[in-house]
Fold:
Amino acid sequence: MILPDARTVELDSDSRERLRARGLDYRRVDAADEPALDAFIRAIARGFIESEPTAEKIEAARTGQLGRRLIGVFDATSPQRDLPVATVGSWIAPLTIPGGELPMWAVSEVTVAPTHRRRGIARAMLEGELRAAAAAGVPLAGLTASEATIYGRYGFGPATWQTRWRVDTRRAGWGGTDPRGSLQYVDREDAAEAFGELHERTRASRVGEIAGWPLRWRQLSGAVPGDPHGSSVRAVRYLDPEGVLRGAMAFRIVESDTDWARSRLEIRHLIGETSDAHAALWRFALQHDLVGTVTAEMISLDEPLPWLVADSRAAVRTVEDHGWLRVLDVPAAFAGRSMAAPLDVVLRVEDPLGIAGGSWRLESGSDGSCRAVAAPDAEAEIDLGVGELASLYLGGVSARSLAQAGRVRGDAAAVAALDAALRIDGAPFLSIMY
Ligand SMILES: CC(C)(COP(=O)(O)OP(=O)(O)OC[C@H]1O[C@@H](n2cnc3c(N)ncnc32)[C@H](O)[C@@H]1OP(=O)(O)O)[C@@H](O)C(=O)NCCC(=O)NCCS
Structure:
């Protein structure tokens, strides 16, 4: 897929004017201008309540900004006038959707300095990103959220979920398969490479995934200088009986204060291309000597772990929203999506930002394809917000559940038909934060 470059897209003039009226300068940060980029990176660290980054951490962080459209908001009255009081970074990433992939405007690094909070700066930046993405013809925007309460107001809805696990290893036992391949320790840099390779090989088969980037894999494998936990991270890879790389895991062991033989193994990242690889990595963690508890996060909603252990109640999970989506162009978003059942329904979509609102006829073709066309004069059978449309889009939540919650309104038969058409195999899943 050839993706446009978000850096070439004009800054939104409404947002610029709105911020200028408040004495703030909304402008691009050039990643080639090292002092400006470093200030941008320091502002992000402050926004995410991290300590002041060291020179080596800044150097590593620079690589993560390559190719991104970086925007800072500056306050000329600040004694640190070159340090932005707000930041946002974005790029266009391929998103796996049911039946293929589409370009998605990825929004990240959203911070506002606590001195400038709740004055509408984030709103101006977010609306600016969404208008820019829509103007560039990108059908969807996406992000991962620090809090579930922030982005609904801009028309985002949760579309993938992650699970967190806590497993009592003594109680869990093992009830799964006995993989025939082998596990090997690898260096952190090699683990990062294995994560990238495996992710790239598998992301097209998992609805909800986006492409990763080298710094993300190095962060997960503890390879980035300045990571306070870096030296405690270890990594293993799984080779199938033919010697082909099929899985990798990075983890660290946190010693127990009271019982050394019951330390906690924290999985930082686990990826298995095959069910053998997946089982072998979990078994390695659960059977690790001197470990009493295994914890993991960023695991899919359809994770089979309870079926791999002997005592399923030893594996306790919690569920959290993870990947949020925003539909910007209804016909383009749905033209790329496959349908699991026949559909012909008119939706009335409410969009507070006026980007994707209106009445749309959604219909399936005989080959399972989908078509959405404007239907301004047709009577709508279903009413919903643009955020709910985004939540339904990847098939991760049923229209019936949203109707029960009053978030989708309409005739029960139409809701059931929409439900059946948008259903997918498995749960949509995004394995990384961005
Ligand atoms: C979240 C954050 C970016 C908001 O910035 P801000 O400039 O204070 O937000 P705004 O003033 O533009 O607020 C816009 C709206 O969002 C609401 N809002 C802002 N932060 C919120 C939060 N954390 N939870 C719930 N609502 C929030 C505001 O009340 C306002 O609501 P309204 O439009 O209905 O009146 C800022 O608090 C921040 O940097 N937090 C720490 C870093 C972080 O979590 N960033 C998000 C990364 S995903």
About this structure: Residues 91 and 354 are 23 Å apart (CA to CA). DSSP finds 13 helices and 17 strands in the chain.
